[in-house]
Amino acid sequence: MSAMIILENITKCYQLGDNQVPILRGIDLHIQPGEYVSIMGASGSGKSTLMNIIGCLDQPTDGQYFLDNRNLTTFTKDELALIRNQQIGFVFQQFNLLPRSTALENVMLPMIYAGIPKSERRCRAVEMLDRVGLGDRLMNRPSQLSGGQQQRVAIARALVNNPALLLADEPTGALDSQTSQEVMNLFQTLNQQDITIVVITHELEVATQAQRRITICDGQILNHSKGEVT
């Protein structure tokens, strides 16, 4: 089976005055469809930069990135925005929910940008919130939800356009240990439904729950290892 994600010699540098500062240094990585992968590293290791490239939020300085056999390094910004909307779901540490909107309205938002009719938006959002265990909290605003519930809303929002790839950047960083495990259990369930998941984390307990753990340091991949859950 062809890999879903192929990174070939990816480098990323930022200009700082007259100097170029390297962040990623020749990353080679293959991720298969339906795989659950964690990318682990300390602060400043380059893991978030790598996620931004995988998620089409940034482009590499050099190298090639293939998603479903398409070379995204040749795509325009508008074409990359379409890929993000249609094929990639994002989950972040701080949830990024609209505070004055209900859980239902927050989950419906990506479908507005995708041009999905209003009647279908509501139906799909209700279904997705029910899928993450919040079918009874549709009309609650973020301030009326716990941290774990807010992250579940964010996960529902990330999944509502049926992306093939879910990217999670430190998804448990703002949660206590029990709630963190509940979120990771949800990721396990979603992965069993054939969603490809990539989690960026600095926490070993989170990283080891993936099928494969990738360690990155100083912009380079140090090793691959199996997680505790396969």
TrEMBL record:
Family matches, as InterPro entries: AAA+_ATPase, ABC_transporter-like_ATP-bd, ABC_transporter-like_CS, ABC_transpr_LolD-like, MacB-like_ATP-bd, P-loop_NTPase
Keyword rRNA-binding in record: no
Pfam families: ABC_tran
Domain ABC transporter: 5-229
The keyword ATP-binding is annotated on this UniProt entry: yes
Superkingdom of origin organism: Bacteria
SUPFAM superfamilies: P-loop containing nucleoside triphosphate hydrolases
Span of the signal peptide: none
Designated name of the protein: Macrolide export ATP-binding/permease protein, putative
Organism from which the protein derives: Acaryochloris marina (strain MBIC 11017)
